[in-house]
Amino acid sequence: MKELNNFRFKTWHFILLLAIMFVSTNILGNINIKRTPAYLEETCFVEIDDSTFGEAISSDISFVLFYKEDSDLCTRMEYNVNRLAELIQGEKVNFYKLDIEKYPGRYSKYDMSGTPSIIIYKRGKEIERLMGIVPVSNLEIIYNRVVK
């Protein structure tokens, strides 16, 4: 028992703990991303471009996903939003996506720091911004808040 009272955390203990946490979160994150289907057979998203952007967001509620074609993270987010669309079937919500590699001007105009990013518009006005992968349960909460 006396040995436990004399134990002191050293700097290397914290460094080792941080390294273990970093490695484990990266491994778990990659496992979660790999569970996403590589190809979505049916999607709720309509591909838009610079010329159709203004018209697309002018409807009541629009979710616009800014994505990169070859990004696993963007595929995961698209999958999550598709699952949200299944939950809210019949609602007046539009889902659009814009490839930022084809239309980089739109991406820089909205001052985004990364992909995937979703901007939610209500009658053309931005009302919510989501960055990164958002779980379906959180998307549902955000949707319910936006609709009210």
Automatic annotation (TrEMBL):
Pfam families cross-referenced by the UniProt entry: Thioredoxin
Domain (Thioredoxin): residue spans on this chain: 46-139
Record's keyword terms, sorted: Membrane, Transmembrane, Transmembrane helix
CDD domains cross-referenced by the UniProt entry: TRX_family
Record's keyword annotation contains Transmembrane: yes
InterPro entries for the chain: Thioredoxin-like_sf, Thioredoxin_domain
Annotated transmembrane regions: 12-31
Protein name per the record: Thioredoxin-like negative regulator of GroEL
Source organism (scientific name): Dysgonomonas hofstadii
Source taxonomy: Bacteria, Pseudomonadati, Bacteroidota, Bacteroidia, Bacteroidales
